[in-house]
Amino acid sequence: xxxxxxxSSEHRIxxxxxxxxxxxxxxxxxxxxxxxxxxASDATSAWEKLNADKSLTVLLSDxxxxxxxxxxxxxxxxxxxxxxxxxxxxxxxxxxxxDDAAEAKRIGVFEFLSKPVSLRALLDSTExxxxxxxxxxxxxxxxxxxKPPKA
Length: 151
Known about the structure:
The chain is α/β, with parallel strands linked by helices. The chain has a single domain, classed as Response regulator (Rossmann fold, 3-Layer(aba) Sandwich), CATH 3.40.50. Helix content is 48%, strand content 17%. The chain has five helices and five strands; from the N terminus they run βαβαβαβαβα. It has helices at 20-32, 43-52, 70-80, 98-107, 119-146; strands spanning 12-16, 37-40, 56-62, 88-93, 111-114. The chain has a five-stranded parallel sheet with strand order 2-1-3-4-5, sandwiched between helices. The longest helix is centred in the last third of the chain and has 28 residues, at 119-146. It is globular and about 40 Å long.
């Protein structure tokens, strides 16, 4: 994994899981690896955090949660963004189906991981998702600056 020290603290991860022990373990592991992490225990709290904080660049969410599930959250995130405000979504699940994976791909989820997931696989996926979101945001800013003024 690359050295995270040069990555902006403005770009952070939101971790969402309704299982408190897994949420805490995941959050602590990502912080120990150098990431700036926020957490939420349900999709509603995650929606609020994503609306309030545009620096959340990667969403790591459980697929199966009480109330709104990870697919609903992912669809909302993928539908609301443009290239200057990209948040890549990584879904985690212990019991996902082929239909879940197909739906995740259709709505624009960056990656779909099965639990249990190794820390190395999780960190690699997070880094790829972060780099993708960062690159898409930079391209969006460049495109926005390059547009001629309207007459």
